[in-house]
């Protein structure tokens, strides 16, 4: 295994070790809570314990993957281009990054203003996809039309006042800033799609930097790699321009020497090294004793 492969293996190993310790730490407590759910009283103890693990893993693995993605992006783009505090306009602030988990943007745009939120919501709603079948038109929220939100932002500028907002992943590629809403689950249901798109557009508006690209990204293609992704967010963002799905996401941030297939191989080997399956079984056995 060469140096870059080893760096990626180590990132996955470290972040998923933290994840497993976190799950192991509160597994029994979560199992007891689940037993209070009378709706599940027809399920046996082992089935309930398995449900607890899946629920816990899905809810917490997103943070582990975000951490992996940020650290992997730093291999490709460099530490300074994947900062904890994203501040392309060099705004003055007193935020100490050692107290921040993940990444945040800093802005002097009042992104908490209800009127700005309304304008962003209207922009999304007025540009949703229309029609059905062959007559269907894609959303017109694309990398060009979102520039109009930068003009909108001017009305809400508050010099000297700093606002912050978390961002799943942000990095500078040498030409553009790239900001992403990253979903570990592969999609959103239709009811959550509008608010998540508006959150992403709010981050873009707050960043207030012309050379910025926006993406909705997923860790895997729920429809299978090579197939057209059919997620609910396509109603609200231009597809495929505003999306990085599965393989396309990983190859956007992986070092150029490592393709998606090599990455998935490293990932599987590393989880085997962590003995994931046996640790899950031991957690469940311990809980049921």
From TrEMBL:
Keywords: Endonuclease, Hydrolase, Nuclease
EC number(s) given by UniProt: 3.1.21.-
The protein's enzyme class: hydrolase
One MF annotation (Gene Ontology) recorded for this entry: endonuclease activity
Name of the protein this chain belongs to: TdeIII family type II restriction endonuclease
Originating species: Candidatus Fusobacterium pullicola
């Amino acid at each position: 295994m060469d140096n870059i492969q080893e760096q990626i293996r180590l990132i996955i190993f470290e972040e998923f070790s933290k994840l497993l310790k976190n799950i192991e730490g509160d597994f029994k407590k979560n199992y007891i809570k689940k037993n209070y759910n009378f709706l599940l009283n027809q399920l046996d103890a082992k089935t309930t314990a398995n449900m607890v693990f899946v629920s816990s893993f899905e809810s917490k693995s997103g943070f582990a993957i975000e951490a992996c993605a940020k650290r992997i992006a730093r291999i490709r783009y460099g530490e300074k281009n994947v900062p904890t505090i994203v501040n392309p306009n060099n705004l003055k602030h007193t935020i100490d990054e050692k107290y921040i988990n993940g990444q945040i943007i800093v802005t002097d745009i009042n992104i908490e203003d209800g009127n700005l939120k309304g304008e962003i919501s209207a922009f999304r709603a007025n540009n949703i996809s229309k029609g059905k079948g062959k007559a269907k038109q894609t959303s017109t929220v694309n990398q060009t039309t979102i520039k109009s939100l930068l003009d909108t932002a001017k009305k809400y500028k508050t010099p000297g006042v700093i606002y912050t907002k978390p961002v799943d992943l942000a990095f500078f590629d040498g030409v553009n800033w790239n900001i992403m809403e990253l979903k570990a689950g592969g999609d959103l249901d239709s009811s959550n799609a509008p608010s998540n798109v508006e959150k992403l557009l709010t981050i873009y508006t707050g960043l207030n930097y012309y050379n910025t690209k926006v993406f909705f990204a997923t860790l895997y293609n729920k429809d299978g790699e090579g197939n057209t992704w059919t997620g609910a967010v396509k109603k609200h963002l231009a597809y495929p321009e505003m999306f990085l799905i599965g393989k396309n996401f990983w190859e956007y941030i992986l070092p150029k020497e490592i393709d998606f297939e090599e990455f998935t191989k490293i990932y599987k080997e590393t989880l085997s090294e962590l003995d994931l399956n046996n640790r899950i079984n031991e957690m469940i056995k311990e809980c049921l004793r």
